[in-house]
Amino acid sequence: MAKNEQQDSGSSSARSERFVDGILRRCQDDKGFAARLRRADNPATEYQSWEILASFGVDISRDYQRLPFATVGAAIARSKAAENGSIGLGEAVAACYDDGNESSQAKARIRRILACHDIEEVCRVLRPVLSLIASRVDVPVDYKLLLRQLLGFKWNRRRVQLQWAQNFYSRSFAKGISEEDGA
Q1: What is the pLDDT of residues 109-144, one digit of tens each?
Q2: What distance in Å separates the CA atoms of residue 102 and residue 113, rounded to the nearest whole number?
Q3: Could you tell me the pTM of the whole model?
Q4: Domain map of the chain by residue range?
Q5: Where does 3-182 sit in CATH, by number?
């Protein structure tokens, strides 16, 4: 890993926090800002969000930076969340369905996410999933964690995919243990 790539991933935690906190605050106060950010999801209108992304220090010329920030920013703007959430991506996907992670639809969605090979593909696949989550789940996603994971996807795709899978499948494991304890 090159030195500048290490710096990009090493500082991603602080950058992710600043970005998510800033976007949450601005979306609450400025509806025009939120509208421009929602357009980041569409490749034809994405350019309207570049000024916002660049103001947060995102190098918009690098897909591996621009796409994660644009995806998470658009998801926040669309969700109308007032604060960062507390659930991971896998848990949020499971929460969209009555059967949780036992649902065949939930399993199909998480498998599709886990099958992604690059940042462009994972961001494209996540866009409708994040919209679904915003419409069906009361607790917002932990956007700071999701952004850190997306920023790390380029260099450690396998680790990020394992985190998402663990977060999705661990709900049934925890449920199974609590049922055994009660028996």
Answers
A1: 999 999 999 999 999 999 999 999 999 998 889 999
A2: 17
A3: 0.86
A4: 3-182
A5: 1.10.520.40
